Amino acid sequence: MDVALERAREAAQRAESGALWGTGTHLGLPANWYVRYRDEAFVEETMNAELCYVSGRARGTKGECWEEDFSGYAQRLELDDAEALTLSAWTRTGYWCEHACVEEYLDLEFLGENAGGVELKMKLKRGRVTATLTLDAQTSLPAKLAVAVCGDEDVWVFDDWRRDAAGAAYAAKTQLFGTNGGVQEFYVTGVASGRSKEGWGIFDKPNKKPRTVTVDTTVSPEVPTVRASSSHVLVEPIINGKNVGPFILDTGASGLVVTPRAAQRLGLRAFGEVHVSGVSGRVPCQFRRGDDLKLGPLTLQRPVFMEMGLDGIVSGARKPIAGIIGFDAFKNAILSVSEGGTCVELYAADQVDNIDENWAWQELRLVSNVPHISATFSGANIEHQTKPNIFMIDSGAGGADVIFHSKAVEELGLTQLLGPEGSRVSSRVRGVSGANGESAGATMTYRTSMDWLELVSAGADGANVRFENVDTLLASGPGFSLSEHSCGMICARLLGTQRIVYDVPRRRIAFVAK
Fold first, then answer.
1. Centroid of chain to Cα 44
2. Does the pLDDT of residue 382 top 50, yes or no?
3. pLDDT of 398 above 80
4. Residues whose CB falls within 8 Å of the CB of residue 186, separated by 6 or more in sequence, listed in order
């Protein structure tokens, strides 16, 4: 290990600070990009003709990771998002092998050496996201970085290493391969060593509010809902002045979704390509751009949708499902969903008179813009009952109260909850499909039950939120895994038993008994 690291440092000749910029392909479109670094801090901007994303990490051992999306909404990143961003950026900028980085931030494991090079396993100290770094056998510079992301693996490939005027090495060509398709490319056209004039502030999270999201506080906060025989909550937004049918109100969706049929009816402009993670894996989709979206008092200007098929997800709706309302509608507002989903209300972030500080507020954590909370459960042993685990909150997932992904089933020993193999009840849970009908497939699950599931934080009265007789699915194949930190998801059926208030601006969520 020590020999490999020393060779990597000598090969990198990394400057304390510097910048790289160039052209490439991002989300299926030609793009320009820029990255600046100084010690452990970095900031990167990628811009194509339609969308711009900025991400970074502030200085110091407690420097926060952050991202600013295409709408100008900036947020703190945590868990998988922060870890994956940091590992990839430090590899690209050469900080990964510096003495300070190895001693302060990284856990490294030597995996072996062969004709292809040296392989190292890396993760942040106290982190869960792992990456395998391959160093070229001849140059000792990074050749490949494979990072565990959203239950899959993203692979960075570094080619055509060159040196700047100060002797620091940089990859003139970098490619990012998504496991199930999609390639982002970055070509360096300029490089500079030395500190920027902006100082450390350039690496800090922006604090501006997006101008594309507004909530009219002078009108009723109530959003009319549409009934379905499944546990889903359906709403009918007005997009480009038209109502094209019901959309699933889905806290487990990282953005907005529209079906090909609805997009055609609305005349939404198509562009780019993205691979979206669903319960059964990633599917390829294209983007669609609208003029505006209105949902009760909320208005989104120039909304961006991912186009994908949603057949078979909702049962008992009187009209075909036209799409999904996800994170973009919640990120700068307070969302309240009543017991059974019969009443949905949206408030501006500063309308705090409509919430009660005495409720049992839970810390809300976001991974890929999807909410997660901590809970204990009866499970199979005392550790499950006393040590909190992280669950995704997915109001768009039906068929059970709770679903554990297969990795958690194995690691937590949850197969003890199942009966003998001959008596086990199995079912397949279907995911979304791509814009052209590509299916993410279905995941095999086994049904069981748990006595209880309890959220971590108590209310002002000292009582915790507790659910009894929890209908549970245990996955036996890939799917349902968005985070290396989570064990599964809490689904629509369980969520529908209480009023739930999502306060994303303050990163908290309340479950309010009837």
1. 18
2. yes
3. no
4. 22, 24, 33, 173, 174, 175, 176
Q: Would you say 282 and 275 are in contact if contact means Cβ atoms under 8 Å apart?
A: yes
Single-letter amino acid code for the residue at 277 = S
Residue 336's beta-bridge partner residues? 345, 501
Give the mean model confidence (pLDDT) for residues 270-291: 80
Whether 326 has a pLDDT exceeding 80, the answer reads yes
The band of 441, judged by pLDDT with boundaries at 50, 70 and 90, is low
- State the chain's mean pLDDT as an integer: 91
Residue 218 in tokens? 């002078």
Domains of the chain plus CATH, in order, are: 2-203 (2.50.20.10), 221-510 (2.40.70.10)
174 touches 186 (CB < 8 A): yes
DSSP 203-220: GSPP-PPPSSEEE-TTS-
* 347-381 pLDDT, tens digit each: 999 998 889 999 999 999 999 999 999 999 999 99
Residues 6+ positions from 156 with CB-CB distance below 8 Å: 88, 91, 92, 144, 145, 146, 147, 174, 175, 176, 177
Query: Does position 456 have pLDDT exceeding 90, yes or no?
Result: yes
- Spatial neighbors of 126 by CB under 8 A, at least 6 apart, are none
Q: Vertex 435, ends 478 and 187: CA angle to 5°?
A: 85
Report the C-alpha gap between 261 and 256 in whole angstroms: 15
Do residues 480 and 405 touch, judged by C-beta distance below 8 A?
A: yes
Task: Report CA dihedral (136, 140, 144, 145) to the nearest 10 degrees.
Answer: 150
User: DSSP character for 63?
Assistant: P
What is the residue whose two structure tokens read 């295409």?
Answer: 70
**What is the token pair recorded at 225?**
């809902």
First and final C-alpha spacing in the chain = 58
**What is the residue whose two structure tokens read 């080619």?**
159
